[in-house]
Amino acid sequence: MAFWEVWRFWWRKPEAQQPDPAALAIAEAISRNLAALGLFVDSRQYGRGFFEIKASTSPKLITTPDGTEASGIALLLAGAYEPPSLVFEQINSLQRGLGRAMVEAVLDGAKARPDAFRRLRVNDLSPRLPDGRRWWEHVAAAHPEFDWVITHEEPFNSAR
Hints:
Elements: H1 3-12, H2 14-17, H3 21-36, E1 40-46, E2 50-56, E3 72-78, E4 85-92, H4 98-110, E5 119-123, H5 135-142, E6 147-151
Parallel strand pairs: 4-5, 5-6
Antiparallel strand pairs: 1-2, 2-3, 3-4
Helix pairs in contact: 3-4
């Protein structure tokens, strides 16, 4: 079958268009929490098991790490992963404390259905703090109710 035939076949199935109720509840809770911080929020569903959520201080939804134009966060709720995972794709904060507030808003939203997304993934490229740990390691220690997967890999396309 050609790509378009597969896509058309999949798209016609009503159950394929309906979001997973747990993922929908979490996406809505996270979006509300981020909007409550005064951020512009965009949440999109991709198939039954995926939601992408972006939030930013800019209406352009800028979430570029190390950016100087705006603060923001980008997430993926990957219900089709095994186990289902919430992936922190990007985060940038120009205001002291906003990064932590965005992460807390996401974690509080994930608690809307604590059985659905216990696995949290993040690639932590933050510098080591005075205690020798990185920023995300502190976040994970403060939230042991989640199963954390923290990597420290440079992006593939970064300059070497």
